[in-house]
Write a structure and sequence with these properties.
By secondary structure, the protein is α/β, with parallel strands linked by helices. It has 2 domains: 121 residues, Response regulator (Rossmann fold); 99 residues. 70% of the residues lie in helices and 9% in strands. The chain is built from 7 helices and 5 strands. The chain has a 5-stranded parallel beta sheet, with helices on both faces. The longest helix is centred in the C-terminal third of the chain and has 94 residues. The radius of gyration is 33 Å and the shape is elongated.
Amino acid sequence: MTEKKILIIESSETFSDYIIEMLKRVGFKTVVAPDADEGIEAARREGFDLILLSVELPKENGYIICKKFKEDNELKKIPLILMSSEAKKSDFEQHKKLKVRADDYLKKPFVKRELIASISNLIGCEIPIEIYCTLEEKVETLIKEKDILEKDSKNKEKLIFELRERLNKASGSSNVDVEKLQKELVETRREMEEVKKENMQLTQKNGTLSEKIDEINKEKKELIKSSIADFADRDKREGDLKKRLTHLEKELHEQRHQIKKVLENAISSIKE
């Protein structure tokens, strides 16, 4: 299967990078154009399966560019999604009523699930969106949890250091109540052991989370790999069917020609 290629016409480098990262993870190839002129030039130069067009562009806005694309005999067949951070829902609804309009609309900032679903509906991406996005969300949740654990672990290490300092200070003091010092030493050692135990548990849990993240990322890769394989198999079947259809059409044409010849000969014999 050939890699699906998407043209992103977006003036914000930060946002285009955000889109590229999302699409790269599901196997799409991307090309970015920062303005309309470069976008139209790229669309004419290269073959794209879909165009993501921002409304907020320098020189001309995305609505005008959308009209140019959709009125161009060469480019109008490419599915086009309009994106906007400023447009209201009513603006998109009004644009949908026009004769020349986009194929879909996305309000910025959108999440990965929205973007992939929109693209999938237009160009038939075979990756199971719900499953993939659920896996992505699981990874993001686990990474956040892992970050919290790492912070907790650092705090525990800091506490251990502070308790050791307190212990050393108490041990080195000559002008203290012996009984009070002994109690403080025992309490401090107990606190240290508890903190060490908690820190060890945090480290183990952190390792487990890392393993889970690796497992889910592996599952995501397998999902994309199997989906691409299925898509390639479908493309092959479609190609075989097209070849078969062409062959049948050729046979039908030859048969029609032969029948026509037989009829002409029969009519000629009758006249004679």
